[in-house]
């Protein structure tokens, strides 16, 4: 289970010499592909500094599911996924976490492995907007309720403007829905959002102001995580390289490459990693369950 994120006090590179290590990152947007190409140079710098032979490459997919397919088929090695996608990747594509994003607080995996979360939500909410909830590769049993995408029927089996946490917030802003499930960093990361216009729904039925997420939330959810194929022979190398990159390029105050800032890329957002990420942490001993 993806439990509390842990911080490492030291990094040890374990890559053997004499052969090139492929590190193929799957991207899903043109902007992300461009940032990934810049990230390639960073990874090459790290490998050179530590006498490593690394071959980073950016592989563009059409969406997260397509990237999962590419990783399963050996056409790519890595992708960053959100909490829901982590569950799908682990359950349907035999993938495992490498490192996770840290936003300054511990995150927990709260997925109930004995219960289909989509069916539970469909039974609770009359109408919802959950993009791709009826996509065959996600709804593998065909039991995900169609009312979960009744508010955005064009997105039942594909991504759209209401995908992801930003999309969920946009759904609320556009009055498509009355409640949005987002992370505590979502409102602050939306440039045109006014915090005073929204409030949290607390677990005990009360309300809370934006910023009071510690005392007012519905659940603690998993951080986004970089995923790879289970049993990948280069997993330890990926962990070490990404932690080193996070230490050297995670500070957004510098003039060089910024891992956790996407604004340079045509005002992009959350490319490769969420912009609200503070650092990457090792969660290699945990799973999606």
TrEMBL record:
SMART domains: TR_FER. Keywords: Repeat, Signal. Residues 1-20 form the signal peptide. Residues 23-289 form the Transferrin-like domain. The keyword Repeat applies. GO terms for cellular component: early endosome; extracellular space; plasma membrane; recycling endosome. GO terms for biological process: iron ion transport. SUPFAM superfamilies: Periplasmic binding protein-like II (SSF53850). InterPro entries: Transferrin-like_dom (IPR001156), Transferrin_Fe_BS (IPR018195). Gene3D superfamilies: Periplasmic binding protein-like II. It comes from the Eukaryota. PANTHER family: TRANSFERRIN, TRANSFERRIN 2. This is Melanotransferrin. It comes from Stylophora pistillata (Smooth cauliflower coral). The lineage of its organism: Eukaryota, Metazoa, Cnidaria, Anthozoa, Hexacorallia.
């Amino acid at each position: 289970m993806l439990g509390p994120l842990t911080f490492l006090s030291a990094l040890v590179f374990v890559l053997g010499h004499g052969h090139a290590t492929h590190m193929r990152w799957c991207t899903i947007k043109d902007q992300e592909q461009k940032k990934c190409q810049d990230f390639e140079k960073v990874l090459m710098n790290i490998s050179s500094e530590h006498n490593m032979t690394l071959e980073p490459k950016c592989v563009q997919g059409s969406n997260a599911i397509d990237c999962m397919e590419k990783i399963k088929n050996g056409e790519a090695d890595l992708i960053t996924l959100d909490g829901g996608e982590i569950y799908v990747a682990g359950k349907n594509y035999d993938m495992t976490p490498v490192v996770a994003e840290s936003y300054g607080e511990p995150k927990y995996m709260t997925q109930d492995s004995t219960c289909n979360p989509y069916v539970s939500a469909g039974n609770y909410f009359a109408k919802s907007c959950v993009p791709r909830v009826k996509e065959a590769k996600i709804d593998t049993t065909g039991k995900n309720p169609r009312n979960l995408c009744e508010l955005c029927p064009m997105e039942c089996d594909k991504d759209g403007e209401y995908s992801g946490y930003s999309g969920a917030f946009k759904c609320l802003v556009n009055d498509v829905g009355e409640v949005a499930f987002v992370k505590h960093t979502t409102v602050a990361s939306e440039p045109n959002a006014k915090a005073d216009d929204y409030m949290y729904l607390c677990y005990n039925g009360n309300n809370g102001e934006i910023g009071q997420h510690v005392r007012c939330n519905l659940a603690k959810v998993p951080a986004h995580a970089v995923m790879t194929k289970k049993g990948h022979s280069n997993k330890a190398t990926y962990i070490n390289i990404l932690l080193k990159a996070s230490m050297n390029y995670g500070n957004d105050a510098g003039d060089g490459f910024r891992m956790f800032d996407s604004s340079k890329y045509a005002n992009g957002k959350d490319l490769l990693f969420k912009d609200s990420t503070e650092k990457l942490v090792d969660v290699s001993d945990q799973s999606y369950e």
